[in-house]
C-alpha cells in the first residue's frame, strides 16, 4: 500500500532541484554544492536517476536559450554535407566539428574514471577545488578575447575539451573550466559562453541516454514521481534564469564575482570539513 504523500520529502527534492538549477550554469560547481548539501546538512537524493533528471532539466533550459544557434548550426552542417560552401556555412560546420572534438576528452575520461571519481567525493576536496576554480576565474577575469565563432581552431577545441575533462573533479565547475579555457585561448565573452554551453549539450544528453536503463530497472514510486516532477521543474526554471543572469554578467565583464564567491566559500568548506 502506497504511503501518504510526504511533503517534507517533496520539498527536499524541490530544494535539491533548485540548487542544481541555480549552480549548473554559473561557474561555482553544481556537483560540488550537492556534495556539500549531503555532507553538512544530510540532504541528498538516492540513486543515479535523480541526478539524470535534474541535469536533463538544465539541458532543456540550455537548449531553449540557444535554440536559434542550434538550429542554424544544424542547418548549415547539413548544407555543408550537401555541398554548399558559403563562408557562413563553412564556419558553422567547423564550429560543430570543434564541439564534437571538444566533447571527446570528458566523454572518455568520464567513462573510464566514473567509479574512481564517485568514490572520492568529499567536502574537503570540494573546498580545495572551489579555490582552484576561483584562482582560474581570477586569472582570466580581465581577458577580452577577439576570437569570434569563425575564428576558432582545432587547438582551441582540444584545450577547451580537456578543460571540461578537468571538471569531472567535484568542486571544479564545468562551465567555469570551459569558460576559462575558452577565454584563455582568446575567445570573446559571447563566443566563449556559447561554446561552453553548446559543449554541455552532448555530455548531458549522453548521460541522460546512459541513464535510461537505470530508470527502467528502478522505476520510482508514485510519491517519488511527484517529487521528481517538482525537482525537474525547479531545476528547469532555475537553470534558465541562472544562465540568462550569467549572460548578463559575462556581457558586463563581471566574471570576477564568481571568483570572489569561490574564495569565500572554498576556505569555509575546508574548515567545516574537519568538524563534520
Automatic annotation (TrEMBL):
Q: Which InterPro entries match?
A: UppP
Q: What is its EC number?
A: 3.6.1.27
Superkingdom classification of source: Bacteria
Q: How does it sit in the membrane?
A: Multi-pass membrane protein
Q: What are the subcellular locations of this protein?
A: Cell membrane
* Entry's Gene Ontology cellular component terms: plasma membrane
Which reactions appear under catalytic activity for this entry? di-trans,octa-cis-undecaprenyl diphosphate + H2O = di-trans,octa-cis-undecaprenyl phosphate + phosphate + H(+)
Q: What's a Gene Ontology MF term here? A: undecaprenyl-diphosphatase activity
Q: Does the keyword Hydrolase apply?
A: yes
Q: Which Pfam families match?
A: BacA
Q: Supply the enzyme class, top level.
A: hydrolase
A GO biological process held by the record: response to antibiotic
Annotated membrane-spanning segments are: 52-75, 95-117, 123-140, 192-212, 224-243, 255-275
Q: Which UniProt keywords apply?
A: Antibiotic resistance, Cell membrane, Cell shape, Cell wall biogenesis/degradation, Hydrolase, Membrane, Peptidoglycan synthesis, Transmembrane, Transmembrane helix
User: What does this protein's UniProt record list under function?
Assistant: Catalyzes the dephosphorylation of undecaprenyl diphosphate (UPP). Confers resistance to bacitracin.
Q: What else is known?
A: Bacitracin is thought to be involved in the inhibition of peptidoglycan synthesis by sequestering undecaprenyl diphosphate, thereby reducing the pool of lipid carrier available.
The entry assigns this protein to a family as follows: Belongs to the UppP family.
Q: What is this protein called?
A: Undecaprenyl-diphosphatase
- The species this protein belongs to is Abyssicoccus albus
Which lineage is the organism of this entry classified under, starting from the top rank? Bacteria, Bacillati, Bacillota, Bacilli, Bacillales
Q: Which gene encodes it?
A: uppP
